[in-house]
Amino acid sequence: MLIVGIFIFHFCGMFPYEIVPGVGHLLVGAFFMLSGFGLMESFKNKKNYLDDFIGKKTARLLVPVWIAGLLVLVFQWFVFDNHSILNDQRYLFDIISGGPASTTTWFVVELIFFYIIFYVSFKYLKPKPAIVAVTAMSLLLMALLSQQQPMWYGSGMMFPVGIIWSYYRDKIESVKPHGLLIVSICATLILTYAVSKYLEPAINNLIYGNLQCLLVGTILLASLVMRKNNIAQWLAALFLCNIVYYASGVQLGHLDNLATILPLITILSIVAGLDILSPMTDFMGEISYEFYIIHGMMILVSKAWFPDLMTCLISSFVLSLVFAFVIKRVSNVFFDSKKRKSVTSG
Prior knowledge:
By secondary structure, the protein is an all-alpha fold. The chain is built from 16 helices and no strands. The protein has helices at residues 2-13, 24-45, 53-78, 89-93, 105-124, 127-144, 150-153, 158-167, 169-174, 177-198, 201-226, 231-252, 258-272, 278-286, 288-305, 309-345.
């Protein structure tokens, strides 16, 4: 459901709304956390996982975005009659992420940085020092990027959080979910107060953005665990986290869009927890990355075709699903053929 929230965020941003639910960096932060968690889980469970790590991981990122880039070119030519796009330096230099009409440049580049940091740390250090190294280098990277747009640094610290979560998974998951919530809520409030009192605005934004991501990640994870145990506790936890999130925003003066962020995240959490919708959410999960790299173009295309708001919303979502599936299938041709050759040669 993370990608659905990001889609809503970008869709609203392309129309003249007074209020846009600013959930973009929060949900991307959850993606970063899941990425770090997944890498660490694979490292723990797969022998020789780091062999050809950089090549495999970057290919998984770049092949889909190159395919998306070709689709962007086609739509620019035939929908927007933009035959001069190949003379546009933004497209030529940004083709790695599908051209200027896509929304993935920073996300792809930052993920590659994280992959390199992870590889170097775990290749040459033992796990605990490697985790420290990844955390320190990620923090340094976020600090260096803090002069850029907030999306570059507002969620990046969630990557080492995912690694730490995986490494201490048994201990963390042995604690009752409401215990984790209480600890994370108290830590959030204390850190929020410290940030508001003692840090400069630039560092304030860097830390607060990642604190937001941490709290939202806790909401999502704890709610998915708690719903299996007790529905009343689950709903109470969501309500409590909403209050804490709002309180931290008030303390730091970050009140923009809180009224839309909180209900949207809560609704996404509830929908993600409904077993009856699991076939749909599983399918969305399989193509979430491809959906991410093409949905911006599909919103622009639908906006050009359908001036009606609701028709445009439905059209852009359906087109994003269709072309995300196409990108996934075409990408898999390259990776599946490589697997078959490897098995045959073996």
